[in-house]
Design brief:
Radius of gyration: 46 Å
CATH architecture of the largest domain: Beta Barrel
Shape: rod-shaped
Number of helices: 4
Structural class: alpha+beta
Largest sheet: 6 strands, antiparallel, barrel
Order of helices and strands: HHEEEEEHHEEEEEEEEEEEEEEE
Number of domains: 4
CATH class of the largest domain: Mainly Beta
Length: about 375
């Protein structure tokens, strides 16, 4: 009777041993797969873009103020009462147009008086020439009359000049400023009546550092902007470069000319200027996101056969979210633009789950245009 319990225990142990062997056998493939999964998960998820060829411009920025190509303060050359104002502020006037008139009654009367004297002298000379032809008048008497006529004509021209000065005219075509006096005011040669600006073109003067002295020349392109016109930019060209460098600022003056056909730019406007001092074509450009800076060194991760290779580069100018690469890269290379923060040299990489627009199928990484 005691043999039956011992036999039951033996059967139970055999059953447990067989179960353990079975579960160990069916778990081996699962263990192998799990061993491979960590190796796949060790590849960093990245996005890349291709380097390309392009053109970059070396640009110097500065600030300056505008001034009209021609600009004057209108001041009378004689004193008197203002009897007429012939313009409105902001009006465009032609060269020679009357702007102000001063009281000129006495000048007009003096001109009429001298004109009468001239008529009388010319009549006397005509009669004297007839008498001289008949030998009834001496040559000296005729010369005396001619001398009086000459002096009268000189006085007439001087008086006409005085009369004309009572009319103040525009010296050139331009736009009138605010008037500083009212009708009936007494003015003299120290009174600024108004201003006149020729704003068909605007001069923009600014200063840039001396290190660019050899790089600036007449005809180079400038682009100017102002907070007064946030949605506009104004293009122009360099028209003059100073021959001296200021000792205090170590900078030199540059004058550019901006076309202003609609006369929107006033004199004295503060503007930011971008001057193109050099242009390089067919250079290698890399996305700005791909550049990693450590101290004075710059590098990128280049993807080669699923591996990120750390590559040192020398950079130049930035242009439209891209950076000029002067050495270290060639066009058409894949560089990491996202996910490189935790990368190391020769680290495995794999594509993001969602490819960026423009990605090529089957390339193993998500590409973005540079």
């Amino acid at each position: 009777m005691r043999l039956l319990p011992q036999l039951g225990i033996a059967v139970l142990l055999s059953t447990l041993a067989a179960s353990a062997w079975y579960w160990s056998a069916i778990s081996k493939p699962s263990g192998s797969a799990s061993a491979q999964k960590p190796r796949q998960g060790g590849a960093a998820v990245v996005e890349t873009a291709l380097t390309r060829r392009g053109t970059v411009q070396e640009i110097v920025t500065a600030v300056g103020a505008t001034r009209a190509a021609k600009s004057v303060q209108i001041v009378p050359t004689t004193a008197g009462l203002v009897t007429r104002i012939a313009f409105e502020a902001g009006q465009r006037v032609q060269a020679g147009a009357v702007l102000f008139e001063l009281d000129s009654a006495s000048e007009r009367a003096a001109v009429r008086e001298i004109e009468s004297e001239l008529i009388n002298l010319r009549a006397q000379i005509a009669r004297a020439e007839t008498l001289r032809a008949r030998k009834l008048l001496s040559e000296a008497s005729l010369d005396d009359l001619r001398g009086k006529l000459g002096m009268a004509e000189a006085r007439w021209e001087a008086m006409r000049s005085q009369r004309d000065k009572r009319s103040i005219r525009a010296p050139f075509t331009g736009v009138m400023g605010l008037r500083n006096i009212n009708l009936g005011a007494y003015v003299d040669t120290n009174t600024v009546l108004t201003t006149l600006d020729d704003r068909s073109t605007i001069e923009l003067e600014f200063r840039i550092p001396e290190r660019y002295f050899s790089a600036v020349s007449i005809g180079q392109t400038v682009n100017a902007t102002s907070i007064a016109f946030p949605q506009r930019s104004f293009g122009g060209t360099v028209r003059a470069v100073d021959t001296r460098i200021e000792s205090t600022t170590r900078a030199f003056r540059v004058r550019a000319e901006l076309p202003n056909p609609d006369a929107v730019l006033p004199e004295g406007l503060f503007m930011a200027v971008a001057l193109v001092v050099a242009e390089r074509r067919d250079v290698v450009l890399a996305p700005e996101e791909a550049i990693i800076k450590e101290g004075d060194a710059n590098y990128v991760y280049v993807v080669e056969a699923g591996t990120a290779v750390r590559t040192s580069i020398t950079i130049g100018q930035r242009h439209d979210a891209a950076v000029e690469v002067r050495s270290g890269l060639r066009p058409g290379l894949e560089v990491v633009v996202k996910g490189h923060q935790s990368l190391r040299d020769n680290a495995p990489v794999r594509a993001a789950d969602q490819n960026a627009p423009g990605a090529s199928p089957g390339n193993g990484v998500s590409r973005q245009p540079s």
